[in-house]
Fold these 3 entries.
Entry 1:
Amino acid sequence: MARKFLDENFLLNSETAIRLYHETAKDMPIIDYHCHLSPQEIRDNKTFKNITEAWLYGDHYKWRVMRANGVDERYITGDADDYDKFLAWARTVPQLIGNPLHHWTHLELQRFFGVYELLNEQTAPAIWEKVNKQLQSEGFGARDLITRSKVTVVCTTDDPVDSLEHHTAIRELSDFHTLVLPSFRPDKALEINRDTFRPWLDQLSEVHGREVNSYDEFLQALEQRVRFFHDAGGRVSDHALDVLVYADTTREEASRIFAKALQEGRVTAEEEAKHKSYTLVFLAGLYRELDWAMQLHIHALRNNNTPMFRRLGPDTGYDAVNDGAIAVPLRGLLDGMETAGGLPKTILYSLNPNDYQVLASVAGSFQGGGIAGKIQFGTAWWFNDHRDGMLEQMRILANYGVLARFVGMLTDSRSFLSYTRHEYFRRLLCDLLGSWVERGEAPDDDELLREMVANICYHNAEQYFGFPAVVPVS
């Protein structure tokens, strides 16, 4: 007999999995250590005029499948009415069986709005009315949704030149107890050949308080901003390494390359690799000194559709999985950091699942220092955060390392409704462990397994990142 869709034991296929999820994982709080939420919207407790604004504005996951379903761009990013955009999404959802968006859409409707009907063209009008009525009532602002999801820490993604004024304002709120902390994302500092580099350097000069016109001054300014983020509670950095490179160089050579970039506007590919390498090694030393965790997001192929990039800009659903060399440059980069004084805590992600075994095995080459799980093979990211991708990542981590020390899931999201992704992950974790127990591949030790689940869901991240303070969630 077929099971009911999205019932209470959804994704749980054994008695062990059911017990682990409902008795341990289900009610654990959340640490969202990497996301793209707006700190200003959190500060303002942003409310949403309708479900389209909360769900479809900025969600390039949904935009991609709407395009693939034949929806005209006017109903995706264009000037169509919000209700018509919602209807376009409602018509798309029934076609998404097998895609995680089919699950996530209905989980969000259930968990946040008590809507258990399937979303389709026929149910859309009633769901539109029911959900919008709630969104316009008390308790559905951005902060409210975070609190309801039992989130103790949110790490936003912030440029080094950011004032962090919204983070400061959030800390002063007396009725909101989630830590909202900045993450240091210096991608523009590394991309010395992009058109964004010089304008960004002017911004860096402004916040630094003096002109950044040499490499020494550049590194001093970056250090100043790292310490500024640290004083604001930041304990995490993040780097988009879409193409992974490493080249040995000296401070003197890096200085000459920086000067050439300022004078001529361009440097060679080899010189760019040396700039990136020396700068990353320098930053890693700061992270290590301050006990930060460094995140490396590898192998995204961005902005593939030039006409649509010109029309809509980045992060609009036109990115893909990249390939290319990873083992040798990754080993070189991590070894360069280790040789220069020691690696910080580091989390490695790749958008290409073919890189998983490389990440897991290279991570094992740099563990140590008495830090449990110091070098993490990070959770299934972006195009991989579906059922198969999450399970594959955890299986490879278990085979190559210590799954019990895994820091678990994140949202990587711009949506305040995305915290059901943690539920999705936790159900899969419990089902994986339960399947091993049922087959006699893991001991049927309830105490051991419950501790492992609780640690992966929450406590490992709490201990690993060492955030300034975490308010317990009842």
Note: The longest strand covers residues 151-158.
Entry 2:
Amino acid sequence: MPGPDRPLEGRPTMRQVARAAGVSPMTVSYAYSQPGRVSPQIRERVMAAARELGYVGPDPTARSLRRGRVGTLGVVLGEHLGYAFDDPQAARFLGGVADVCAAEGVGLTLVPTSGAASDVDRVTSAVVDGFVVWTTSDDDPVLDAVADRGLPAVVHAGPAHRGLPVVGIDDRAAAAAIGRTVFAGARRPVVLGFPLDRARVRQLLAGPQVGEVRFPVTRRRWAGFRDAWTAGGRPLTDLRLAVCPANSTAAGAGFAAELLAGTDPPDAIAAMSDELALGVLQVAGGAVPDAVAVSGWDDSEAAEAAGLTTVAQSLREQGAQCARIALGQPAAPAAPQWRVVARYTTR
């Protein structure tokens, strides 16, 4: 029969190691978890007994239950898993999360979601101490799933939901600022944007046709670009929104090629990311900036190399700030900073 000294499947126990080494089970525990509390001679005796018995150390699951924490932070990523490695902005953000995890000695678990019914189950069953949620839509059911867990949690760039804290820059103000730069002298501007909702429909809309926008980042950036264009009395009908289903250079290049070859080509393109803007530069070539001004967002290394006018923000620091909140540490007193970096792609 299994018992304290005879576990299931013959796994050696701490008590057996203690008996073999002639010490108490607590001393064995200290030898593994707090070696400074035992003498080097005692610790070596414990380790020799453990090697003899084939004991590999305390069961991490049982230890986690005793401590009331598992030592892992969960990041809910509303994209396929490869997005975390393919998208430079997501990688920078996760790098900041990882910095804090490494400093605090905790693990990092990615919880990808795809809009399927299993998303909620994946969040509900995640064995973590807290959650960082990558920006998502207002109606994403994983937000309720995260809030229902009752663990420390934070949402990057929104939406605000059931009191969950949000970390991110003032997207509307930043969009208005860079909009004033990229739209200078323009008559046929286009905003190359993110999806409006989880359906991720690719479409070209005149300003007044843009209805409900359920992704808060898209909504706030569109509002800021709209503010910049209409501030001088210019009609919203002259501003168009090209909705890309994905944030990638290929998506930006494909849509820009269609726009520039059309009957009403834009003379200014304000992209909601550097990736989309870099796609525009691929197809616009020497037409930038005289025939068409271009701006991006995030100030990646590729944007700097391309001379792209963009919004600079530190996604790595925002990731670190989110991680600290999700680990139960106090939130930073000030909001993350941003600035417009004007380079060669605007007039």
Note: The radius of gyration is 26 Å.
Entry 3:
Amino acid sequence: MTTDQTPRVASYVRDTLSTGIAGLDDVLSGGLTKGRLYLLEGTPGAGKTTLALQFLLDGVAHGEKSLYVTLSESAEELRASAASHGWSLDGVELYELVNELGLDPESEQSILHPSEVELGETVREVIERVDALQPNRVVFDSLSELRLLAQNPLRYRRQILALKQLFAARGCTVFLLDDGTTDVQLHSIAHGVLLLEHTPREFGAGRRRLRVLKMRGVKARGGYHDFVLETGGIEVFPSLIAAEHHADFAPVTVTTGAPGLDLLLGGGLVRGTNTLLLGPSGAGKTTTAVRCMLAALERGEKATYFLFDEGRATLLARAAILGMDLQPHIADGDLSIAQIDPAELAPGEFACRVREAVERDGASCVVVDSLNAYIHAMPGEQFLILQMHELLTYLNQKGVTTLLVLGQHGVIGEVRSDIDLSYLSDGILLFRYFEAKGEVRTALSAVKSRVNAHERTIRELRLSRNGIQVGETLTDFEGVLSGLPAYGGKVAMLRSDTAE
């Protein structure tokens, strides 16, 4: 007689509850599992209270009952904190376990005399309040005070288990707030653990990150996720995983708007690829990027320009002088220019802004100008290359035409870059200065293309009232890659009044 040893698979449908923060719900694969107890850890000022209030207010918005049990702050302080974000706590029950009477040495408030009276009285008070309100969502703030009152680890663990059983029996979804050090025993009791970090930087805003240390039965996104705490609450930026984002598109070649540049690139730019514009300051990288973007706008596409280095007004004025008026496209809503402050930027936030431009605004052309400021905003960021790899892979898989501007140090002679992104780029346009007939000119060459049979020639680039003009091949040009190009003088140069 044989027996079937195949394990039985039980069906399980997770009943989720939103945290009130869309990005955090994404990290948690839909939100929190209902009726469970969660631990929220972080140092003072990390954002625990703000996150907890958003969690409770989301419950109020969905017709649920919410309870905030506080040992560390008064109800008035909590209302003031909520008001700073423009929130009202109407609908959230605030319960102070320590009030003015509890601060009186002669008072019989047992919570302040754990050596004389069992801490169980604290739990009984919470039970009474929970039974009276029957809340769906509960926040207990904070465990640090409860740990002090318990006086020994065994007693503290017993009280946490008592609270867990209390809330579980009543179907409450609970956040326990703790600003102490990592407590492994407490982690084993909680259904899930979230860690909030706030790391100061020498200049600019401190970096805030969260990490899911534990989440039973949930495939949460691993690693750190950047978030910001501003007026209006917390916004979480889930780390980008390019493999999760695919779109069907035709990898067709499109014009750059400059015939000479199209020839150099082997026909133009290809959808679903990224091109790196590499060269010294002032060589024409931004103007070339604007010309390519304008061609996309003229085809009826939408575009987003992420501007790090110069002011928005300066970019628009310069483009208009060169015959590339961007204002009509901004007015039509086809072009969005996002002015980025690198001192306030987190890597995850930038990736999220790019995703919004593509998925929400429908941008099929994205320009990042420049990567230098983006890199300098994150000194010591060890995994910047990996983040750029995910971002560029995401854009390629979405069929976006991406232009990346990267300035090099130096003007004449040896030049160098802050970071090597050449292997991540599908195409590279190299800009170099050269001298001819007593005038400083710009040479342009396509040194890499993964998709087109590009020219391996060197052409002259000139900025004019019609944008950019790319001249004939400079056959007597030598030394461009060494940084000291020399021109023999047999091929005619572009004149400054040509095509103007």
Note: The two ends are 94 Å apart (CA to CA).
